[in-house]
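S2.1 Query sequence (PAC domain-containing protein)
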Amino acid sequence: MKHLLRSLQFKISVSLFVVGGILIGISALRLNERSKQSRRIAMKSLAFAEGSRLSGMSQHLLRRKVSRAADLELSYSSTNKDLRLGLIVDGENIVRHATMQQMRGLTLAETPLAGVGPLLELVRESMEGRVLESVPDKRLVAIFPFWEGLAQAKGSVILEYDLEMPLASASALALHALLAQSMALMGGCLALWLLLKKVVTERVETLVSQVQGMSLETEPMPAIQGRDELAQVSQAVRLTHDRLRHSEQRLHQIAATMRDVFWLAPDDSRSFAFVNDAYATVFSRRAARLVTRRWDWLHAIVREDRRRCLEMLRSLRRGGPRLEIEVRVASPEGQLRWVRCRGFAVPGSDGQECSVAGIAMDVSERKTLERRLLDTAENERRRIGMDLHDDLCQRLAAALMKTGVLQSALARSGGSSQEPLAAELANDLSEATGIARGFARGLAPVGIEALGITAALSDLGEFITRGFKIPCRVECSATDTALTGESSTHIFRVAQELATNAAKHGNPSWIEISFEMTPQEARLLVTHDGRPYRPVSAAIEGMGMHLVRQRLDALGASLSFHPPAQGDDAVNSVECLIPLSANPETATVEIA
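Output structure tokens follow.
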């Protein structure tokens, strides 16, 4: 029923019926008024003619004193059913003849026409007959004077007609005409209804079904045949459907062959997100679940990385620039996979949020290679450090001993001019030995495997103090039981790079390295009072910071730079947070 009321067929038919009804109503009012006016004019003409005839006949017959003939003439007039009362009065207003015999001899004031007395006097003065309505739309009175006998007395013929019944009859005739027009209107509306159903409604329904059925999975519906507007629209829809179908097929083929996940999240929360077939491989979840659970993909991401995903989506929804993040995805079996997500905003309508699209690439192999490169580089650093310590440092130590023996021999020879040069050479060899040992300990830090990260960081503080002549204090309140050797090495190298950058680029007067651990995370903080150092983009980072990023990815850690606060004692700090519960080397992955 609602569909019928909303149809174009119903609206056009009702509109035509309403307009036709209004026109018929206006026509009926005009017809009724015209019919009543025509009937009124006809009644007045009849009254005028009858009054003129009776006044002439009365004057002739009364002069001859033929009263019966006057009664006969008056009786002829009474055959008109609309005549209520007819009187012939003399100059004294005494009824001489009447359509009702009982009124003979009465005065005019004693009859039902007593109210026409004033009008009768006016008529007698002008001796001109008059026809007028005594009661509007109800009574019509005709008064016609005549000369009575030789005495020249003024007699009158008074006729009263019923006007109400003739006018009602005229209204009835107008109503009959209105009913005929109404039936014609209803017949026209019914014919229009059937015509619209055949010509418009059924074809529009076909066109709507054709538009709603436009999809990649269904065959295009046949277009409406013809050359009218609806047929042209249907044929254009069919052509557009074919083009869209071919475009979607090409896009589907491209998306199906992609190894990366292509996704699109519409701005309408009621619409479903689109993902290609690679989603099941990368996220280890069925794409069909996104229909009922819009955020099912988020549960595949490690809990600590979800916040960054949501922040990226919120930024893109507001029309922000393209973003790229790397997150970890866990399979139902607990296997970790690194995924690089690139997202961009698709502008929507004015005042609405943007749709978001992007590509998610599995970079686990690259991460594995990077970790192997880190391990290889670390082993090579250790080998070089050990070679420096076991070979170069030993050779320098031997040369230092020989120089000491040479200095002693020169001293015993007494007053040799080469003794100061030998002493200077011994001093240089001693400094070179200390520098070489420092490099060896930096390349192969002693204590990470044997004594733990606390001893290694303390040794790093002494190296910074000795090598850069800047006081470096180390505070550790951590135990090494929750860290493996690889994690400890990565944390040490991050601290080493951050502290070295502070010493080289910040020109500080002091540096502080703080390391603490909780069951959930480890916190490394490097603080100094020099200039802040923070690369504006990854493109201009040096090799050291690039390696730091790789080590942070291996640890699943985050790095944040804190600018100095306002004040004389403002300091810069770089904070590194390592979530131990999410560290692939230290804990089992928790899947939501």
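The first helix runs from residue 2 to 6. The CA atoms of residues 262 and 359 lie 5 Å apart.
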